[in-house]
Design goal:
Layout lengths: L2 H29 L3 E5 L2 E5 L22
Antiparallel strand pairs: 1-2
């Protein structure tokens, strides 16, 4: 596998992980479940109301993620 191919593979893996995390967070918010985050060197639980809304995208993807 060339360096270019490996870079594209890593980019696609990263995009998939980001999309999955964004979907999981959105599902927790919709279901009314809290999520833990790391803030100021400690775990902090965000209530569903404190979870920021993800911006909508025209292509239906997660924020900051481009479709392969």
């Amino acid at each position: 596998m060339s360096t270019l191919e490996r870079g594209e593979l890593y980019r696609r893996i990263d995009a998939g992980i980001k999309e999955g995390v964004a979907k999981a967070i959105a599902e927790h918010k919709r279901a009314g479940r809290s999520i833990p985050i790391w803030r100021d060197n400690q775990v902090v639980w965000l209530t569903p109301d404190e979870i920021p809304d993800a911006p909508d995208r025209e292509d239906g993807g997660a924020p900051g993620v481009t479709k392969p």
